[in-house]
Amino acid sequence: MSAAPVEYGPEEPARKRPKTLLDMANDISDRCPGYRVEIIGGQILVSPPPDAAHARALTKIMVPFIAAGLDEDETSVVQGVGLWLPDMVDDFAVPDLSVVDADIDKHLIKHNCYDPICFRLVLEVTSSNFRTDLRVKVAAYAEARVPVYVVVDRKHQRLHVLTDPAGDEYASHRVHAPGEIVALPDSVGAKVTLDVAHILKAGSPG
Fold first, then answer.
1. Per-residue pLDDT of the chain (206 residues; tens, 9 = 90+)
2. Is the pTM of this model over 0.85?
3. DSSP per-residue letters across 64-113
4. CB 135 within 8 A of CB 150
5. From CA 95, how far away is CA 98, in angstroms rounded?
6. CA pair distance 203, 155, nearest whole angstrom
7. How far, in Å, CA of 119 to CA of 115, rounded?
């Protein structure tokens, strides 16, 4: 049984109100500019600013999405847009890249995060916190019913494509190595193929 919420009258000073996880996440964001702060599974996750190789991989992977026409009338290709997670009251994630419906602005929930119904695909490029992308976020995005989740795994030099969310996992999880050309599901809105070697090479330090 959950505890009843505490209500404060107008005479109660705001400083007495307990901070929510969202308040604490905002405090961390204010103290650590450039860091990515998320709340997943009721836990605050903090990621350091990406390195140059991470940014290069993200740029390279955007090209085929844009070339396929996914940044035009019906959909947009966006970076760093918050996705509100349905699992807990303040949960949200900030994928590196997303393909979203063009009317996403109509589906703002709060904290600059949007209803997961708008997201056709989310993509993460791993950094030092690769376990989060390959474990924690798999469950989070599946529970949010995001149809396609792609992970550029720079540590293990693999590309993961997860589809068909079911509960807290994806029914299909395919792992691709350099040398493969991967066709993404048509559900993203267009035919998109990814050159695994090309993307992973861009994500490797010079």
1. 333 344 445 555 555 668 899 999 999 999 999 999 999 999 999 999 999 999 999 999 999 999 999 999 999 999 999 999 987 889 999 999 999 999 999 999 999 999 999 999 999 999 887 889 999 999 999 999 999 999 999 999 999 999 999 999 999 999 999 999 999 999 999 999 999 999 999 999 86
2. yes
3. HHHHTTTTSSSEEEEES-EEE-SSSTT-EE--SEEEEETTGGGGEEETTE
4. no
5. 7
6. 10
7. 8
